[in-house]
Amino acid sequence: MKVGFVGLGLLGSAMVKRLSSQGIKVNLWNRSIEKAKTLGLPYVETLEELFKNEKIIFLCIKDSQAVEEVLKKGSSFLKNRIIIDTSTNQFSKVLEFHQFVKDWGGFYLECPVLGSIIPAEKGQLTILVSGEKEPFEKVKPLLEILAQKLIYFQTPGKATQAKLINNFLLALFMEALASALVLGEKIGFSKEELLEVLENGAGNSYVLKVKKEALLRENFTPHFSLENLIKDLNYASELYQKFSGISLEGALVKEIYKLGVKMGLKDKDFSAIYQVLKNFQFY
């Protein structure tokens, strides 16, 4: 099977490597062609060329504005194309994308992922899918290369809503763990002591499992950047305002993550919220 792929950031590159390692022929396009060249796979110089040549096209792009730009540039070649959009989008925008691609004769699947670089490279992501059943079944073998679990919602928008709810909780949980760790250290616990308590008590979680070493070593090499998490929190705020009013918890935790940007940590992993809480004076 042959696919096109747009977006070679950390997650996109990891997914490309996984697909290629499993025998999928991947044709690349990226805003920076240099990134495409480094992967040693076929690439095209223009986005239009990719849309013209490939029937199935993955997107893994930073935000909804970028997704919209890509779809518009490739619109003349959308007929009979299946777009697999793994980006995390605004829930209102993603509904527009479904309609836009349909109007041009193509099929749009919103497929936001749960997990980051290492699960992507190992084919252990969870992928949430919304869109028409027939194109989903057609590309399901591709998605199963990337994911250990697929969760399908036929209704457009539901996959994106579920992803935003998940990342809202992710942000709260990471901030709570970091807060507990900073408090324990100020009292006099070592990080090792406190993390042992938390992983055997109320802190026991997937988040602690995957971020334990980053917290211990204070190595915040990005797997999911603080800046990208703030973007998702902004999208989640829109979701809350439409369906549930303002989330006080979300508003407060977003401000704490934004302090990380002011401290120069925007490109660090979101677990660097620990450094924000440890080093910033809140009085």
Automatic annotation (TrEMBL):
Domain called 6-phosphogluconate dehydrogenase NADP-binding: residue spans: 2-152
Enzyme class: oxidoreductase
Signal peptide: none
Origin: domain of life: Bacteria
Listed EC numbers: 1.1.1.60
Active site, renumbered: 163
Sorted UniProt keywords: NAD, Oxidoreductase
Pfam families per the UniProt record, alphabetical: NAD_binding_11, NAD_binding_2
Molecular function as annotated in GO: 2-hydroxy-3-oxopropionate reductase activity; NAD binding; NADP binding
Residues covered by the 3-hydroxyisobutyrate dehydrogenase-like NAD-binding domain: 157-277
Classification via InterPro entries: 6-PGluconate_DH-like_C_sf (IPR008927), 6PGD_dom2 (IPR013328), 6PGDH_NADP-bd (IPR006115), HIBADH-like_NADP-bd (IPR029154), HIBADH-related (IPR015815), HIBADH-related_NP60_sf (IPR051265), NAD(P)-bd_dom_sf (IPR036291)
Record-linked PANTHER family: CYTOKINE-LIKE NUCLEAR FACTOR N-PAC, OXIDOREDUCTASE GLYR1-RELATED
Name of the molecule in the record: 2-hydroxy-3-oxopropionate reductase
